[in-house]
């Protein structure tokens, strides 16, 4: 089966194809990342990266299906709540809402 690996490098999204055996689990795909020029999953995890399939967080033992898009997700720079607070502060110039 063929799946896609989505990874962002230098603010550019790479979408790479990967062939796996039928009934493969996510861990099988993660072990093969270096073949695609992506650092090992262990090193990415140490830097705070996560993994999802079509935007839904998955575990390494979850099964993959034909055509799935595995997304290697960079750690958040700020939480969504922090980003909203900063935006509101800029828009209201520090005034009360």
TrEMBL record:
Protein's recorded name: RnfH family protein
Entry's family note: Belongs to the UPF0125 (RnfH) family.
UniProt-listed InterPro entries: Mopterin_synth/thiamin_S_b (IPR016155), RnfH (IPR005346), RnfH_sf (IPR037021)
Q: Which Pfam families match?
A: Ub-RnfH
Organism (species): Undibacterium cyanobacteriorum
């Amino acid at each position: 089966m063929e799946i896609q690996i989505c990874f962002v490098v230098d603010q550019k999204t790479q979408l790479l194809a990967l062939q796996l055996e039928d009934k493969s689990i996510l861990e099988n795909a993660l072990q093969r990342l270096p073949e695609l020029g992506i650092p090992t999953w262990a090193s990415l995890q140490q830097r705070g990266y996560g993994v999802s399939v079509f935007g839904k967080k998955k575990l390494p033992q979850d099964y993959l299906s034909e055509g799935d898009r595995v997304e290697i997700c960079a750690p958040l720079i700020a939480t969504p709540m922090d980003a909203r607070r900063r935006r509101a502060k800029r828009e209201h110039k520090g005034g009360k809402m």
